[in-house]
């Protein structure tokens, strides 16, 4: 099955400006990558797409940060939003929500990877991130396995902590993981990157569908 071609990153760019969440009815001062995103833009696109504003700031902030860090990658925010929708409903899975600081509360945890429904992965983090010292579980709004987080974990809000439950950190880590596959404005590289995130063709198709829809609604 061939997924739709994702919209080029250039068509998904967000305005760059220091900002707060005041214009979206929230008051926390934004730091790190989220502060790169114009709050009015984020509020407008959130309303058009149904993506929570704080998640929108995380996705767009990571895209902007990576445009400076790895300009050859060309990762658009809508790809991260497609991942975030599927992985956790943009941080809303099982009653969780992203606070103004971008952290999912309560924390988001996948099922134990004990081999019953998914591949068996014995504990790799001593329960530090996933709360289980027996089996690994995917963690946070972008559902990182602890061993993957150990390699790719990032500090997108610049508070000195790599936290998979924090949307700026998780979005930047996911973006770097995807950018490892090259120029994501090229459909074959984009498909390879998203397939690496989850080795299921239907998953790639679903992410492409959400990414294209979000990009179109944001115009």
From TrEMBL:
<keyword id="KW-0808">Transferase</keyword>
<dbReference type="InterPro" id="IPR043426">
    <property type="entry name" value="MltB-like"/>
</dbReference>
<keyword id="KW-0328">Glycosyltransferase</keyword>
<dbReference type="InterPro" id="IPR023346">
    <property type="entry name" value="Lysozyme-like_dom_sf"/>
</dbReference>
<dbReference type="GO" id="GO:0016757">
    <property type="term" value="F:glycosyltransferase activity"/>
</dbReference>
<dbReference type="InterPro" id="IPR031304">
    <property type="entry name" value="SLT_2"/>
</dbReference>
<dbReference type="Pfam" id="PF13406">
    <property type="entry name" value="SLT_2"/>
</dbReference>
<protein>
    <submittedName>
        <fullName>Lytic murein transglycosylase</fullName>
        <ecNumber>2.4.-.-</ecNumber>
    </submittedName>
</protein>
<feature type="domain" description="Transglycosylase SLT">
    <location>
        <begin position="133"/>
        <end position="182"/>
    </location>
</feature>
């Amino acid at each position: 099955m061939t997924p739709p071609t994702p919209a080029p990153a250039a068509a998904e760019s967000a305005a760059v400006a220091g900002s707060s969440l005041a214009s979206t009815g929230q008051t926390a001062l934004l730091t790190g990558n989220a502060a790169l995103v114009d709050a009015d833009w984020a509020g407008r696109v959130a309303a058009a797409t149904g993506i929570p504003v704080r998640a929108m700031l995380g996705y767009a902030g990571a895209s902007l940060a990576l445009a400076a860090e790895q300009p050859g990658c060309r990762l658009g925010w809508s790809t991260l939003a497609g991942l975030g929708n599927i992985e956790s409903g943009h941080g809303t899975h099982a009653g969780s929500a992203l606070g103004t600081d971008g952290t999912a509360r309560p924390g988001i945890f996948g099922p134990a990877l004990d081999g019953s429904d998914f591949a068996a992965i014995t504990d790799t983090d001593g329960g530090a991130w996933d709360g289980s010292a027996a089996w690994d579980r995917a963690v946070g709004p972008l559902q990182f396995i602890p061993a993957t987080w150990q390699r790719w974990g990032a500090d997108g809000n610049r508070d000195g902590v790599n936290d998979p439950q924090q949307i700026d950190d998780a979005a930047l880590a996911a973006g770097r993981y995807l950018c490892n596959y090259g120029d994501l404005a090229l459909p074959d590289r984009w498909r390879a990157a998203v397939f690496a995130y989850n080795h299921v063709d239907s998953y790639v198709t679903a992410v492409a569908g959400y990414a294209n829809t979000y990009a179109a609604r944001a115009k």
